[in-house]
Amino acid sequence: MTNETDGETDVSVEATADGVAGKLERVIAGQLRRYRTAQGLSSAELAARTGLSKAMISKIESASTSCSLTTLQRLADGLKIPVTALFRGADTDRDATFTKNGQGSLTVRSGTQHGHEYRVLGTLKGRTDALEPTLVTLTDASDVFPLFQHPGTEFIYMLSGKMIYGHGAYEYTMEAGDSLLLDGEGPHGPLELLDLPIRFLAISAR
Question: What DSSP state is assigned to residue 87?
Fold first, then answer.
């Protein structure tokens, strides 16, 4: 299909031989329609901005045509968005973990039987470099304070309570709003629980 616009020839082809839209065409169609309507533009108004025909806008939004790079650039310029915004959602095969409040998998670690709860909030399959967020709840001032060592780094953010946290030879008094970024190779863990219950988010990256 050939569309004459402003003296230039913009070549577009049917999405597929049988008229069925491909995945990329459907993504572009949805994004174009979403951005156009969000800006309160009609198809005719967008056509006037871009130099494309109203019929071409309709074909793109119905995913019945596969537009050229030149057409994509004109659409992006007309909507004042980056070209990449029109492809948003095309690469959808990505792993994610959503965890509702109070859920997540419980893990058994040293100290669990003494009122120390470790709830892993999510993991990504097959990613050795993925973050591991864990919600730690300490409800019993026992004498069991497990120390951990692991490759990579760890970030701790206090949500409630107060404790003295150790990392190597150093001690930190932590309460709600405090944070600590540490090298996981150094032995670390709670040393003294000052105000129970204690809840903190521990995010490790290995």
Answer: G
